[in-house]
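Render HTH-type transcriptional regulator MetR in 3D.
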Amino acid sequence: MLERIHLAIVQQVEKQGSLTAAADVLHVTQSALSHSMKKLEQQLGTDIWRREGRKLELTQSGQYLLAVANRVLPHLELAEERLQQFALGERGSLRIGMECHPCYQWLLKVVSPYLSAWPDVDVDVKQRFQFGGLGALLDYEIDLLVTPDPVYKPGLNFEAVFDYEQVLVVAKDHHLAMSEYIEAHQMTSEVLISYPVDLERLDIYNQFLLPAGITPKRHKNIETTDIMLQMVASGRGVAALPRWLVEEYAEKLPIVPVKLGPQGIPKQIYLGSREADGKVDYLQAFVELARETSHVV
């Protein structure tokens, strides 16, 4: 009764905005498309669309069908792609979602040797999933998720591949630069620069400032690491970043890392994947290479 073409029609009508445009994308005539959906509505006993003037609006049934289409169709497309690769003795593509701004520099150190070792695998990094990649992984839009904050759900697997320390980065001539570590109350006079992320996802807040009931003098957002560290180097504020990243930039900028609290803030980078992909050789090879490369970062 319900077939793949019905899901594709509902999805494309919503994307394209009209039956005509959807028919063009799906390479069918508009009359065939309309007939197919009308027959489905009769079989199901419910309308998928209602017409508002010249525009089609999804009914409650249609909205549910669209949600099913958005969830199911990527699975089917990936399955077809993988089966074709198996049939041709090929591998395919590895789609990586980033949920960690500073992890991009770390990822580059892994991607370069991986491309050399696996010439028949294409790598695509999707940064638009920053700070929201779990849904993309569950919906088969990506194959690996790079994150410092794994969320364990049935069907997913997260492996720690890199240990690091989150530190405060200050200008070399900053009054905190020579400190062995800083305490939370010392941030009340500082301008904290961070990526545009919800506060509960910032380690310096949830593991350092908020437990002490402290907020910085001011908080400002900057999207790029380069500009952020230029601002820190010029004395415009301080930031919290991985120690290894700060030490790399310290070779060309007058900045230094300072421990956050006497114990510091230890962190790990995780690679998340679907359990169903546990035997995909080129995916597991990336995880292993990421773990090996991290020993020399």
